[in-house]
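For consistency, the fold was encoded as tokens, which produced the following:
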Amino acid sequence: MKKTIYIFSSGTLQRKDNSLILINKNGKSYIPIEVVDDIYVFGEITLNSKLLNFLSQKNILVHFYNYYGYYSGTYIPKENKISGNILVKQVEHYLNHEKRLYIAKKIIEAASFNIFRNLRYYNSRKENIETYINEINYLRNKISEQKDISQLMGIEGNIREVYYSSWDNIVDFSFEKRTKRPPENIVNTLISFINSIIYTTTISEIYKTYLNPSISYLHEPGERRFSLSLDISEIFKPLIGDRLIFLLLNKKIITEKDFEKDLNGLYLKDKARKKILEMYDERLKKTIMHKTLHKKVSYRYLIRLECYKLIKHLLEEKSYEGFTLWW
């Protein structure tokens, strides 16, 4: 089974026959290329074009993060799955106002329903959650009424604001409000880090399909980002990201000792990142019995299935409905 490789130490990454070799102060580590799905680099790594050519041949993406754990960018091999027909359909559904709005609404409907399911789960375990559930249901009922993307994004923002306001009743840390650049407290730092990991996981899954990652429907396509990954990530943040954060904080797996602060804000120590990524990997491997496929699929594969559903919609084979939690 293929797996994600995380590199934290500084050193050199090279190719040796059909393996990757990480050379650092501790010696050499050999990684058979057959087991590699994608690579995350958190340390200062030196590599060369020979290695990049090798990774391209094997269709392996490399995601880079800086010293503070902020996402820097992704090395993507040349497209190995190309369909002019699907590309034309993607653009067509972006340029057509009604077609774009339909997909964007379905994304928000799914994402907000998954938020609602999270709150409903904690409503029986925590106090003062019911008010937030009612507010989110009120806002969710307005999604279908929105006439353009900016209005829809406004509703999405309001839902997120209410949702995050409820977190003080779910986790044992004060949240106050969502801040990003830089994150101002422990909860915000965890959200930023884990959301960025979900974003890059989604990039990797989109790459395995015929979709173009830069053509999106909810978020505006732009330079220096894969906006379709932002779209699809919204659906899976409540399931993969938020539930992981609740677990990390409420079980005290991550505490104040796992953070450092400087002029760039609050950031996670390497040991804490490793711990989080280990649990994140386990979460992606977790399986559920799929209602339609009638077989067990992993959380990671659910993301790719979302891409396949979008392709079927673009080809007018089946109308798109976003993934929603049923457990």
